[in-house]
Amino acid sequence: MKLPRRVGFIAIVTLIVLTLPLAGLVTRVPWPRVGEVLTSPEAGQALLLSLLTALCATALALILGVPLALWLARLSRWVAASARTLVLVPMVLPPVVAGLALTAMLGRRGLIGQPLHEIGVSISFTTAAVVVAQTFVAMPFLVISVEGALRATSHRYGVIAATLGARPMRVLFRITLPMVWPALITGAALTFARALGEFGATLTFAGSLPGTTRTMPLLIYLSREQDQDLAITLAMVLIVVAIIIVLSTSRFIAPASTRGPSWQ
Amino acid sequence: MIRPVAVAGSLLVLGLIAGCAEDSDQPLVAAAASLSPALDEVLENQSHDDGAPDAGGVEITYDGSSALLDQLREGLPADVFITADKATMDRAVAAGVIVGKPKVFAHNTLQLITPAGNPGSVTGFNNSLRGVDVVTCAAEVPCGRLTQELVQDQGLKLQPVSEETSVTNVLGKVTSGEADAGVVYTTDALKGGEEVETFDIPGAQSYVNEYFVAPVSGGDHDLAREITQTLESPAGQEVLNAYGFHSP
Fold it and tell me: Which residues of B have a CB under 8 Å from any CB of A?
């Protein structure tokens, strides 16, 4: 299908508009200081923490979100619409509000947090809190992405496999999931990127302590207070790392022609 | 068929953008967040005392001193700049965004607060803070710098569970009960009202953050002079003291 010229034109313009702010940022990076920033222990700590927590959040989102997507994909239109709206709420909330909501649930005086605190389990101010915050805001991306793909694939293959004697779990891992593999991968990449950039909910719910809860976005925000150049350099580091990681996931997406159930 | 729609669409978007961009003739004060709502009251009283009906038409934008400086550098059309510490005002001078000599009009000192009921059984700025969840400002912000100096002076080994980016967040964590104790400005302790218990910190009077006011270059200098006078006047100082600020 040949793309209409006007559409192509708008597409190029939009791409340029999206990347111009990034280009603007690049022009403000104080290149002589990049070395100093890359080797500073604070930056290293924050970056490592960001990567670790985002990875955990993505893993958690996969474990919890894929079952949710599978279930959502089977619901009838209207029930699905209501359930999907609930799933979208964390995405719609301003991140700081999401943090307040998490505090209301898991904080010391929270619904679940208070009984937990009484038996000695406190998640506030811990790295676990960071992972929870990131998962909460990023998981909807994965769920919606995978659910959309599941609805677009045919149930036929799964039914045939079942008639041939395959149990549901086998059908899931051999047929259903491989068929939505690209959506899984892009959904996971999106989740990871969102978790990496998460700021408001982390700050409000988990706090900010170097090495424990001060992720890269928090460090960038804090650095702005004293040294805008440093903040921009840190931001550039985060962006480059995020781009590399998201780009590398594209190698896991097989070309369209081979999409289909994986016969072993 | 696409052309009329595209044209109409672009005009609509352009119109919306132009309409949303406000005209900057309105007098504007860029003030440190900790001055809210004290500054509103000071300037409100100013219009009453003068008798001039328009004097109170000043708009105030509150934000972190550092964030405001960034905005001023990028062209924020403010007439007056008020910072919560000397360091940020010095940077403003160095950046050329203000003219003339900045003046000090208030001081802020630190206090220790706990949630109402003192769940951590804190007895003061001492070793009772070990083993409880203490929250302070990060060293990069003015209240954090002050906290560091005070802690060093007292020789206290403080291990906060979180170093917040703004003093409002510290207050928030204490009032919500997430933290057992927090170090905030006296003005914030007052804002906490019934939800917090306060403890004085011995020696805190020696560590102050100074609030500076200065005219912004390219702004309305007469307005800046008027506002400075109001802040320094006995009436203005009285309002500020009521909110917990100290006179210089």
Answer: 2, 6, 64, 66-67, 70, 133, 135, 138, 140-141, 160-165, 169, 173, 176-178
- Is there a contact between A228 and B70 if contact means CB atoms under 8 Å apart? yes
As given in the structure block, the two tokens for residue A74 are: 């089977």
Q: Which of B10, B143, B176, B209 is the mutation pick for testing A, counting most A CBs within 10 A?
A: B176
CA A255 to chain centre: 23
**Burial status of residue B191 (CB atoms within 10 A of its CB: 0-12, 13-18, 19 or more):** buried
- Contact residues for A188 (Cβ-Cβ < 8 A; gap 6+): A58, A61, A62, A142, A249
Look up the ipTM and state it.
0.80
Write the CB contacts of B175 (distance below 8 Å, at least 6 apart in sequence): B115, B192, B195, B196
What whole-number distance in Å separates Cα of residue A207 and Cα of residue B135? 9
Cα–Cα distance, A166 to A180 (Å, whole number):
19
The partner residue sitting opposite A225, judged by closest CB among B64, B160, B177, is B64
What is the amino acid identity at position A208? S
A53 touches B: beta carbon within 8 Å: no
User: What is the identity of the amino acid at B222?
Assistant: D
Pairing of strands B59-63, B28-32: parallel
Interface residue of B66, B91, B161 to substitute, partner A, most A CBs within 10 Å: B161
Q: Helices A127-152 and A95-106, interaxial angle, to 10°?
A: 110
H or E stretch including A37? helix A34-39
pLDDT tens for each residue of chain A, 264 residues long: 788 999 999 999 999 999 999 999 999 998 888 888 888 898 999 999 999 999 999 999 999 999 999 999 989 989 999 999 999 999 999 999 999 999 999 998 899 999 998 898 889 899 999 999 999 999 999 999 999 999 998 888 888 888 998 888 888 888 889 999 999 999 999 999 999 999 999 999 999 999 999 999 999 999 988 888 889 999 999 999 888 988 888 777 655 545 555 554
3-state secondary structure string across chain B: CHHHHHHHHHHHHHHHHHHHCCCCCCCEEEEEHHHCCHHHHHHHHHHHHHCCCCCCCCEEEEECHHHHHHHHHCCCCCCEEEECCHHHHHHHHHHCCECCCCEEEEEECEEEEEECCCCCCCCCCCHHHCCCCEEEECCCCHHHHHHHHHHHHHCCCCCCCEEECCHHHHHHHHHCCCCCEEEEEHHHHHHHHHHEEEECCCCHHHCCEEEEEEEECCCCHHHHHHHHHHHHCHHHHHHHHHCCCECC
A181 touches chain B (CB under 8 A): no
Interface test with A, best of B63, B65, B70, B178 (most A CBs within 10 A): B178
